[in-house]
C-alpha cells in the first residue's frame, strides 16, 4: 500500500475508532454513576415519614424562654452549669430538650435532624433514644470538648471529631424488635450498637447534662420515620 492509500485508510478508520472509544467511555461513566447512586442512598430510603408532636423540657425554676427559643425553623437549646433539672425535686442534670411524643415498644423507628453544636459545649448529651432495662436510655450521643468537639456514644465510642460550629446531619435508626441501633452522621454509618433492653422508647434532642460552663445546640429539619430497612 502506498503512502496515499495509507492516509486514506487512516482517515476512514480513525473517526470510527474515536467514536467507539467515546461510546465505551460514556457507557462506563454511566455505569459508574449508577453504581455510585445505588451505594449513596440516604438512611431514610424506604422509610415512611410520620407526623409527630413534641414538648419542650427546661429548668423548672426559669421561664422556658430563658433556655429555649424557636425561630426560622431552628430550635435553640442552651444550659448553664448549675441550672436546675426539669421539675421541682428531680435529681437529674439540667436540660433544655425537645421530647418527641413518639412512644414505642416495638418496630423500626428513625430520628433525623441537623445539629449545630456551639463550641465550648462539654459533657453534654445532644440526642437520646430514651428507654432501656439496664439503663434509662438505649442511646446517648454526647459532645465533649476534646479535638474541637468530639461526638461519642455515651463515654465510649468516638463517632466524630472537629464537630463544633458546623451543621451535622444526624440519623438514628432503632430496630426495637432486634435490639439494635444504627447511628449515621452526614449519611455515613458510624456504628451499630445493642440497645439496653426493650422498654417504652422515644426520641429527644437538645442539651442535657454539662461539665463546662455553657452548652448549646441548634436543631432543624427534625423528622420522624417508621418501618424501613436498617443499616443500609
From TrEMBL:
<dbReference type="InterPro" id="IPR014895">
    <property type="entry name" value="Alginate_lyase_2"/>
</dbReference>
<protein>
    <recommendedName>
        <fullName>Alginate lyase 2 domain-containing protein</fullName>
    </recommendedName>
</protein>
<dbReference type="Pfam" id="PF08787">
    <property type="entry name" value="Alginate_lyase2"/>
</dbReference>
<dbReference type="InterPro" id="IPR013320">
    <property type="entry name" value="ConA-like_dom_sf"/>
</dbReference>
<keyword id="KW-0732">Signal</keyword>
<feature type="domain" description="Alginate lyase 2">
    <location>
        <begin position="42"/>
        <end position="223"/>
    </location>
</feature>
<feature type="signal peptide">
    <location>
        <begin position="1"/>
        <end position="20"/>
    </location>
</feature>
Amino acid at each position: 500500500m502506498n503512502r496515499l492509500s495509507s492516509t486514506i485508510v487512516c482517515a476512514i478508520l480513525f473517526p470510527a475508532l474515536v467514536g467507539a472509544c467515546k461510546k465505551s467511555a460514556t457507557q462506563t461513566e454511566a455505569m459508574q454513576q449508577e453504581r455510585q447512586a445505588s451505594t449513596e442512598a440516604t438512611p431514610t430510603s424506604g422509610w415512611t415519614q410520620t407526623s409527630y408532636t413534641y414538648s419542650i423540657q427546661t429548668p423548672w425554676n426559669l421561664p422556658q424562654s430563658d433556655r429555649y427559643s424557636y425561630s426560622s425553623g431552628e430550635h435553640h437549646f442552651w444550659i448553664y452549669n448549675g441550672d436546675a433539672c426539669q421539675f421541682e425535686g428531680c435529681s437529674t442534670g439540667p436540660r433544655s430538650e425537645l421530647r418527641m411524643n413518639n412512644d414505642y415498644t416495638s418496630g423500626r423507628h428513625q430520628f433525623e435532624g441537623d445539629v449545630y453544636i456551639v463550641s465550648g459545649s462539654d459533657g453534654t448529651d445532644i440526642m437520646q433514644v430514651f428507654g432501656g432495662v439496664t439503663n434509662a436510655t438505649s442511646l446517648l450521643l454526647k459532645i465533649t470538648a476534646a479535638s474541637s468537639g468530639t461526638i461519642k456514644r455515651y463515654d465510649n465510642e468516638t463517632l466524630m471529631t472537629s464537630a463544633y460550629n458546623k451543621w451535622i446531619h444526624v440519623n438514628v435508626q432503632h430496630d426495637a424488635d432486634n435490639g439494635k441501633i444504627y447511628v449515621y452522621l452526614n449519611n455515613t454509618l458510624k456504628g451499630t450498637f445493642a440497645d439496653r433492653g426493650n422498654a417504652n422508647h422515644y426520641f429527644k434532642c437538645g442539651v442535657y447534662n454539662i461539665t463546662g460552663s455553657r452548652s448549646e445546640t441548634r436543631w432543624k429539619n427534625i423528622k420522624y420515620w417508621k418501618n424501613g430497612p436498617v443499616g443500609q
